[in-house]
Amino acid sequence: MKIKLTAALITVFFAAAVTVAQAQVEYGVFGGISIPNLSASGSANNPLNTGYSSRLGPDFGIISETHFTKLFSMESRIEYSAQGGKKDGMQAFPTTAQMAGYFQSQGMQTPTYLYANFKSEARLNYLRLPFLAKLGWDLGQQGHFRFSVAAGPFVAFLLSAKQVTSGNSEIYVDPAGQQALPVGSQSFDQTQNIRDQLHKANFGVDGNIGLAYLFGNKLVNKIFIEAGGNYGFINIQKGSDDGKNNTGAATLLLGYTYRFDLKDFHMKKRV
Known about the structure:
disordered C terminus, single chain
């Protein structure tokens, strides 16, 4: 039984090696925009982790695509990806020590959250490594245009994380902004490094649809445009005081690749 299993594994290995040796590989670059948002998840929802809307950020990297058949290929990327989200308007923030001192001096119970009208943006930047299975179809007989769909997992590593706030506002004890504290307007112009509060790695699912134009001798040059999205499965916060959020983004990318024929490469190498 073991001999048969070993023989089968060896056969599969050499068949895969031959397939790769005969494959065509593309290398290239891409860039565009990421439109991320932070979605609240789990039972730890509170005023801090809800109410986010999408922000804009860059998305760019390098790409490798290995064609095994006319229909099927595998794609890997090294990608800088902007994630996060933003709020603009009346929103909650944790009661500061200064505000807590005010409540104590008045003999009042200190609330967990206070409210103000300001801007807040969570700027999270990741290095993402997607690994995608891809299907592609030629459009027309000449093969200059090609439509594709791709999907697969990714792993991501947190590069930087900042909470950027701005604006001036009265401080309120209620989310409707009806009960102002007698402390006057306060400045919210601040940038806080929150990287240590977040998990350093994430993983999730990635997918896209694309349209490519192939040109040049043997159609080895390709310009493509893709619309896609990604979603991280891991809650980004280490603790639960600020609630739980998941990353996710829509992307719109433009790129270029050049195709190499590995079979020709191996033949030249033998010569």
